[in-house]
Design goal:
Blueprint (H helix, E strand, L loop, with lengths): L2 H26 L1 H16 L2 E5 L6 E7 L3 E5 L10 H7 L4 E5 L16 H15 L5 E6 L1 H12 L4 E7 L18 H11 L9 H13 L1 H6 L2 H4 L15 E6 L7 H10 L3 E6 L6 H4 L1 H13 L15
Parallel strand pairs: 3-4, 3-5, 5-6, 6-7, 7-8
Antiparallel strand pairs: 1-2, 2-4
């Protein structure tokens, strides 16, 4: 056997081993594999990763493009990669700023409790670095929507518009659903409550990874400070948030149902509700084309007036 043939066979063997290793990793840790793919997609879309110092520790941010600043905030237990399916659609004509929230993804703190104070400190540092002298539009999903409201309440002069996506600052308890499942059955119930019934069924091996992450991941670290979160809800105080607010809602969400969105719309001084049919709690992942189209249309038009729009007008 000649030397070139030996080298070719050795290279092929290494390629096979790497492929098998990646397959096993994706099978055993599908959530991490999916997030890694999403982060690569953000980079491919033109967003560069940077590190921003903050009182909560170093914060990881993906940013790129030029124009008005559009900030995308993920939900609890998620990370910046959740926006990868829509980043390319939203980037033209805008500067996107997509952070890992404090305690999530690659942002500090990497251990211990995640407090609302640390989340807000990390977000403030990111926005101070990204847009110190201009107004921003903040799109927040789930926990990200809550944080967007809290930050805007304290910094209204820096907000062009908020977009709340299946989340907000009102209390809500989804009866019979836990986001910290201890079994595959509990994970199945939670995941199905977050998604439209017609969406692709989540495989069991992914549910097993959800259970594994629930034990020590960001959701568990947030839950450890749940008592400290009570003072950050805005029940009865939505009138204090006097900035334009778009409410974009996956109508199939059974954890935060449409009634929650209507409560936001009715309590906020300047708000408009847009429903996304056949979408659940994380529409940028479940129905990215519909979400990007709806968001782009809203951002291209004037912000909500004080009168707001009825749900049927925003469909």
């Amino acid at each position: 056997m000649t030397r070139p043939v030996k080298l070719l066979l050795a290279a092929a063997a290494v390629l096979v081993l790497v492929t098998v290793a990646l397959f096993l990793w994706a099978r055993l840790r599908p959530l991490a594999a999916y997030a890694a793919a999403g982060r690569r997609a953000l980079a491919k879309a033109g967003l560069a990763k940077s590190i921003v110092p903050s009182p909560a520790g170093p914060q990881t941010v993906f940013s790129g493009g030029g124009g008005p600043v559009l900030v995308l905030l993920h939900g609890a237990g998620d990370q910046a990669a959740t926006w990868s399916p829509v980043a390319g659609e939203l980037l033209p004509g805008r500067r996107l700023v997509v952070p890992d929230l404090a305690g999530h993804g690659a942002s500090a703190p990497q251990s211990g409790e995640i407090t609302v104070e640390s989340l807000l400190a990390g977000l403030s540092a990111v926005l101070d670095a990204a847009a110190p002298r201009e107004k921003v539009t903040i799109v927040g999903n789930s926990l990200g929507a809550w944080l967007a409201c809290l930050w805007a309440k304290e910094n209204p002069e820096r907000v062009e518009r908020l977009v709340l996506v299946n989340g907000g600052p009102l209390k809500h308890a989804a009866e019979g659903i836990t986001l910290l499942p201890k079994s595959r059955a509990e994970a199945r119930k939670a995941v199905e409550a977050l998604r439209d019934p017609g969406s692709i069924r989540v495989p069991d091996f992914v549910l097993d990874d959800v259970v594994r992450q629930a034990a020590t991941g960001p959701l568990a670290r947030l839950a450890a400070t749940s008592g400290g979160m009570e003072r950050f809800v805005l029940d009865g105080r939505l009138g204090e948030l006097d900035v334009p607010v778009e409410i974009v809602w996956g109508a199939s969400d059974r954890m935060l149902p449409l009634a929650y969105a209507e409560g936001l719309r009715n309590g906020l001084p300047r708000a408009r509700l847009t429903e996304l049919p056949r979408c659940g709690h994380v529409p940028q992942q479940e129905c990215p084309a519909a979400f990007a189209a709806a968001l782009g249309k809203l951002l291209a038009g004037p912000p909500p007036s004080a009168a707001g729009a009825r749900p049927e007008e925003g469909r």
